[in-house]
Amino acid sequence: MTQTAGITITGVSGRMGQMLVQQVAEHAQTLLVGAVERSGHDWVGQDLGVAMGGPANGVIVTDDAAQAMRDAQAVIDFTAPAATLGFAAMAAEAGIVHVIGTTGMTEQEIAQLKTPAERAIIVRAGNMSLGVNLLTLLTRKVAAALDADFDIEIIESHHNRKVDAPSGTALMLGEAAAEGRGVTLAEVSDSGRDGMTGARKRGDIGFSAIRGGDIVGEHDVMFAGAGERIILRHIASDRALFARGALRAALWGQGRSPGEYDMLDVLGLGD
């Protein structure tokens, strides 16, 4: 694709929002055309560049997301589940690509994306990085190759300001492991160990969450058997990789048929 795509960013004052602004400015095929924040936020009504502590860039931060999407070809959304569902309806109405990096969405909330996906291209992933999506594929394959005598444990580490646990990436990896074993994650998930929990149940997929400091993101998938362990690992050291992946998804979605996609589709690794 050589045509420039106009991008609107929601939650623009957040760490990912500001990283996305920087990446859009540096990308030859993208142009920032909209910046959205919640009503009452200090940035609303300000020039975005000034609000970020730099020179004016002519983009005024607004709390009117529908207006901000009118001149866009894609909206990139790393916000909160309730906000994301609202943005999905607006993106469908505008007929633009909706890239969703929001984590912590329940199965019921994810199911609500089906209606807007009938009219819009939705690319949703718990993690936008190439490496993590390759890790997802490997997790599925290893889980399919090993029986339930190998316990599966997903260990994830993030910064101390992350509000959801397990992380969206950890859940994505858990889904891949469960798919490899031919079960649903809801049937075998174990993420609430505390106190006298008893012995581990055969076939369960466990989750452990670590929060501390400024850890960008680390994920291990451990297959622990008698006398041996297999550990698949991904370490993210730069948050910009998630923003780059989101931009890639926004560009990939141009001209696609309406529907729900993920980063494996974007990377040409989907089934």
UniProtKB/TrEMBL annotation:
Binding site for NAD(+): 11-16, 37, 101-103, 125-128
Keywords for this protein: Amino-acid biosynthesis, Cytoplasm, Diaminopimelate biosynthesis, Lysine biosynthesis, NAD, NADP, Oxidoreductase
SUPFAM superfamilies named in the record: Glyceraldehyde-3-phosphate dehydrogenase-like, C-terminal domain, NAD(P)-binding Rossmann-fold domains
GO cellular component: cytosol
Keyword set includes Ribonucleoprotein: no
Binding of (S)-2,3,4,5-tetrahydrodipicolinate, residues: 159, 168-169
Keyword Disulfide bond: no
Active site residues of this protein: 158 (proton donor/acceptor), 162 (proton donor)
Pfam families for this protein: DapB_C (PF05173), DapB_N (PF01113)
Ranges of residues in domain Dihydrodipicolinate reductase C-terminal: 131-267
EC number of the protein: 1.17.1.8
Annotated ranges, domain Dihydrodipicolinate reductase N-terminal: 7-128
Subcellular location(s) of the protein: Cytoplasm
Function: Catalyzes the conversion of 4-hydroxy-tetrahydrodipicolinate (HTPA) to tetrahydrodipicolinate.
Subunit structure: Homotetramer.
Similarity comment: Belongs to the DapB family.
Protein name: 4-hydroxy-tetrahydrodipicolinate reductase
Annotated organism of origin: Sulfitobacter guttiformis
